[in-house]
Specification:
With 214 residues, this protein is an alpha/beta fold. The chain has one domain: Rossmann fold, CATH 3.40.50. Helix content is 55%, strand content 13%. It has a five-stranded parallel sheet, sandwiched between helices.
Length: 214
């Protein structure tokens, strides 16, 4: 496959959406329609329907392993229907969350086990990992304070978690970054947004210098 695949990860409140919007526009300016933005859970009709079930606030009785399997099912559809065809067509994929989110949130946050969630998702991804993962990291308390300050949207099922849950999520992300330092680049998200964006641009430049004009 001739395309390239960049995923964006981070705990809640890390500013991932703002950073992604900036990076996305910069790459579209350079590459036009060769850039594909997508997200998880979601990315196509079937995967988005699974997303709706996962985030529905009424589904508070959902078993943790049911949640993990639903994320893996959504990911499988995403890989087969969206990601692999885009890579075969030579696209540059920018994906808002991917496998590492399941490992962090279900493996770490839900205490299901990092290795167990990794193993489960091997059937879903069929060997497809990002070429580069941008991990926006910041202290849990800072992220949660940002969310509370800027909250305007309806609270979904996954918003209602304890501080300890979010600490486990962050620790799982840090463990993944230590395991895969060549793929996962950690960016300090506890600084001015413009600086975070600059650091992300620099990380992408270092890996794919040809993506941007000089």
């Amino acid at each position: 496959m001739s395309g390239r695949f960049i995923s964006f990860e981070g705990p809640d409140g890390a500013g991932k959406t703002s950073v992604l919007n900036n990076i996305r526009q910069a790459l579209i300016n350079q590459l036009g329609t060769q850039v594909l933005y997508t997200r998880e859970p979601g990315g196509n009709q079937i995967a988005e329907q699974i997303r709706a079930v996962l985030l529905d606030k009424q589904n508070t009785a959902m078993d943790d392993w049911t949640e993990a399997f639903l994320y893996a099912a959504s990911r499988r559809q995403h890989v087969v229907q969206t990601l692999k065809p885009a890579l075969e067509a030579g696209k540059l994929i920018l994906c808002d969350r991917y496998l590492d989110s399941s490992i962090a949130y279900q493996g770490g946050g839900r205490n299901l086990g990092v290795d167990k969630i990794w193993e489960l998702n091997q059937y879903a991804i069929d060997g497809l990992l990002p070429d580069l993962t941008i991990f926006l990291d910041l202290p849990v308390e800072t992220g949660l304070a940002r969310i509370e300050k800027g909250r305007a949207e309806t609270i979904n099922r996954l918003d209602e978690q304890t501080v300890n849950f979010h600490r486990r999520v962050r620790q799982a992300y840090l463990t993944l970054q230590e395991r895969f330092p060549d793929r996962i680049v950690k960016i300090n998200a506890d600084q001015d947004l413009n600086q975070v964006i600059e650091d992300v641009h620099r990380a992408i430049h270092a890996r794919y210098d040809d993506l941007f004009t000089k």
